[in-house]
Design brief:
By secondary structure, the protein is an alpha/beta fold. The protein has a single domain, classed as Decaprenyl diphosphate synthase-like (Undecaprenyl pyrophosphate synthetase). The chain has helices spanning about 5-20, 35-40, 45-65, 85-105, 120-135, 150-170, 175-180, 180-185, 235-245; strands at about 25-30, 70-80, 110-115, 140-150, 200, 220-225. Strands 3-4-2-1-5-6 form a six-stranded parallel β-sheet, with helices on both faces. Helix 1 packs parallel to helix 9 and helix 3 packs parallel to helix 4 (about 85-105). The longest helix has 21 residues, at about 45-65.
Length: about 250
């Protein structure tokens, strides 16, 4: 073992030992950013970067299990990404499908898709549906896989779903306008029934949400990490939790 690895291990254990599990966020959202830049820096291909990023997911979920996190939302593919040239998009979709299959096969986590299925190719839709069905009764961390996801699209879909729901009951637009509120819209989000994210982590140094969970993150804390996603380490994760626990959360101010 290299001295650097030994020192890193000791430091990680020290951070973990000092972590107050009562202050751990119950829902963490993660923007997995930096796969391509990590690959370029390592002299590899874009596909190799995405594969390394996909392999990192199970490590993250293992750390979440150890620290009592209950829900994790992983942004794997945005609606904007769907506009990429086919020779870039198709390999990425295959890697994402493989990652989702691996999560379902692991047996420890309950997979739930968040995003617009209709925007995705039929094969990707099938993989997401099968993973969700296969893990429906798993009593473990809920893993929201955000594929074909956009925050504005989610809000538009929620409003559309709300309107259709009430139209099917015979509610008029005037009647609906009198009673519609924040809670009613929230009931039609992709994450309905789940707690909002307490903490949102973005890797690679970018300091913006890019439309991630716009509705749900109104009161979230944000942690921006300089490390590219494939190089994200347990100590980086623990630092994010430590930083979160040290903040005094103020709702609405």
């Amino acid at each position: 073992m290299k001295l650097r690895d030994l020192v890193y291990g000791l430091y990680a254990r020290r951070v973990e030992w000092r972590l107050d599990h009562d202050q751990v966020p119950k829902h963490i959202g993660v923007i997995l950013d930096g796969n391509r830049r990590w690959a370029r820096a390592a002299g590899g291909t874009t596909a190799e970067g995405h594969i390394a990023g996909a392999n990192k997911i199970r490590e993250l979920l293992g750390w979440c299990t150890e620290t009592d996190v209950k829900v994790v939302t992983l942004w794997l593919l945005s609606t904007d990404n769907l506009n990429r040239p086919d020779d870039q998009l198709q390999p990425l979709l295959r890697i994402i499908e493989g990652a989702v299959r691996d999560l379902a096969a692991d047996g420890r986590w309950r997979v739930h898709h968040v995003g617009t299925l209709d925007l995705l190719p039929a094969q990707t839709q099938t993989v997401l549906k099968e993973a969700e069905e296969a893990t429906r009764h798993v009593n473990g961390i809920i893993v929201n896989v955000a594929v074909g996801y956009g925050g504005r699209q989610e809000i538009a879909d929620a409003v559309r779903s709300l309107l259709l729901d009430h139209a099917s009951r015979g509610t008029t637009f005037e009647e609906l306008a009198e009673v519609v509120d924040v809670e009613m819209i929230a009931e039609h989000l992709y994450t309905r029934g789940q707690p909002d994210p307490d903490l949102v982590i973005r890797t690679s140094g970018e300091q913006r949400l890019s439309g991630f969970m716009l509705w749900q993150s109104a009161h979230s804390e944000y942690y921006f990490c300089e490390v590219f996603w494939p190089a994200f380490r347990k100590v980086d994760f623990l630092r994010a939790l430590r930083d979160y626990a040290a903040r005094h959360r103020r709702y609405g101010g």
